[in-house]
TrEMBL record:
Molecular-function GO term, any one: sulfotransferase activity
Coiled coil: none
Family annotation (InterPro entries): P-loop_NTPase (IPR027417), Sulfotransferase_dom (IPR000863)
Organism: Eumeta variegata
Gene3D superfamilies for this protein: P-loop containing nucleotide triphosphate hydrolases
Name of the molecule in the record: Sulfotransferase 1C4
Residue span, Sulfotransferase domain: 58-295
UniProt keyword terms in alphabetical order: Transferase
Entry keyword annotation includes Transferase: yes
Pfam family, one: Sulfotransfer_1
KW Transferase (keyword) present: yes
Amino acid sequence: MAENVKVLDVEADVEKKLATHFGGPKRAYAYFGEDKYFIPKTYKNHADGIRRMPLREDDIWVATFPRSGTTWTQEMVWLINNKLNYEKAADSRLMQRYIFLEFRSFLTQEIIDELYSNQAESHSVFVDYKSLVNAASPRFFKTHLPMPLLPAQLLDTARVVYVARDPRDVAVSYYHHNKLFKVFGFTGDFKDYWEFFKNNQVEHAPFFAHVKGAWAQRNHPNMLFLFYEEMYKDLPSVVRRVAKFFEKQYSDEQLDKLCEHLTFDNMKQNAAVHPKWLRESADGAKVEKFFRKGANARALSNPREVTRTLPAFKDEIRYLMEEEVGHQKSYSLDETQQRIPLFQVCKSGGWRDYFDDKMAEEAEDWIQSNLRDTDLRFPEV
C-alpha cells in the first residue's frame, strides 16, 4: 500500500506575499510530498485516496505541468485511441471525454458556488475521484499532478503520455492564464510572476521536480515522454510515435488528416475543444463569474473583438484561445482591416518577448542549475 503523502503548511510570509498579488478567492496552500509541491490545501483530504485509487489496464493518462500542451495532446491521444472518430469527438466536449482528476479537490465548495455555479457545461469536471469506479472503460485522464502524487501503481498498470515544455514559455503562458482567470486573479506584471514561478510559488511547482520525476520514468514501457517543442516543429513525427505507443495502426493518409485536424487554425475553431463559454455567447453576456472583469464571452470567440473591446486582456485572450497549440498560422483583422499576427506570441520561444536581458540571463542560470543532475534537455526551437 502506498505511504501517506507528506503535507506541510506554507510559511506565513509566503501566504502574505501571495495575498498581495493574487486577487482571486482566498485559498490556503500547502506543500505536498518530498519535493514540496505547491498545491491548494484542500487537496490534503484527497491526496492519499488518489495515491491508492483503483486503476484499470485500459486507463489512458495525459499528464503535464500546466501550460505545456495539455489540450493539444489530449485531442491527439483521444482520437488515436478512438479510431480517428472525428464525428464522435465533435459531439462531446474534451472536458467530458477526459476526467480532470484533481480539479474538484483543489476548490472549496464556496469557490465552486461563487465562480462556477452558472457554468453548467463545466460541471462534468467536478467529478469526485471516488466515483470513478463506475466510469465506463476506457477512462481518459487529464492531470497536472506530478508522478509522486499520482496512483502508486500507475505505470505498472496504465499508459501515460507526459508532455514537457521550456519553462520560460510555460511561465509566460501560466502568467496570462493566472491573470485572466478569476480563481487566481493575478494582479502583477510578468516580472512579479516570474519571481513566484522560479521560487516554486505557483500551483504544481516546483517545475523541475515535476518534469524530472516523469523524465526519470521515460524508459518505462507504459510511459511516453514528449516535448511540446517536438510537436511544434514536427507534429507528424510525434503523431506517429503516439500511435505506435498505443499500438494503433493507421495509414499515412489517415495520420496526415489527423495532423491537419490538430493544426492551430482547426483547433481554435474546434467547438469540442473550446467550451461554449469560451467561444461564444448568444447574447454577448459577460461571464465575469469565471473570468476577470472585462472578459466578454463573444469577444473571446472573435479575435477582432479582442483588439477592439478588451485591450486590457488582449494578451490573456491570445493565450486562452491558443489553448497551448503553438502553430503560428492564424491572423485577425483590426478595425482598419490590416492583417496583424494576433497569435504570434504563442509560438515556442515566445518567452524572449517577455524577458529582458537580466531576466533572460537569470533564467538561463536557473535552468542550468536545475539540469546539473540530469540528462534532461529542452529542444531548441
